[in-house]
Design a protein that fits this description.
- The chain is of the alpha+beta class.
- The protein has one domain (3-74): Winged helix-like DNA-binding domain superfamily/Winged helix DNA-binding domain (Arc Repressor Mutant, subunit A, Orthogonal Bundle), CATH 1.10.10.10.
- It has helices spanning 3-22, 30-36, 41-53, 68-74; strands at residues 28-29, 57-60, 63-66.
- The protein has a three-stranded antiparallel sheet.
- A hairpin with a 2-residue loop joins strand 2 and strand 3.
- The longest helix is centred in the first third of the chain and has 20 residues, at 3-22.
- The protein is globular.
């Protein structure tokens, strides 16, 4: 596995963890998520941006919420 593939794999794991934390469909502060998943603020912002670009979450200021598309994504078989 190359370094790029490892980084992509680790980011996917982090994205899955974030979506799982959001599956209650409520708004969550990024700091709250960051307490559960201790990664850098920069990495959290990048992942939130990517998830928003894919329409898996909505982001308003420093809060995020899963979308219906994000919930369907969680239901996909592994």
């Amino acid at each position: 596995m190359t370094i790029i593939m490892i980084v992509i794999y680790l980011d996917k794991i982090l994205m899955d963890k974030i979506l799982i934390l959001l599956q209650d469909s409520k708004w969550h502060d990024l700091e709250e998520i960051n307490k559960e998943i201790p990664i850098s603020t920069h990495q959290m912002e990048e992942i939130a941006f990517f998830l928003q670009e894919q329409s898996l979450i909505n982001k308003e200021k420093q809060s995020i919420k899963i979308t219906s598309k994000g919930l369907r994504f969680l239901d996909l078989p592994i």
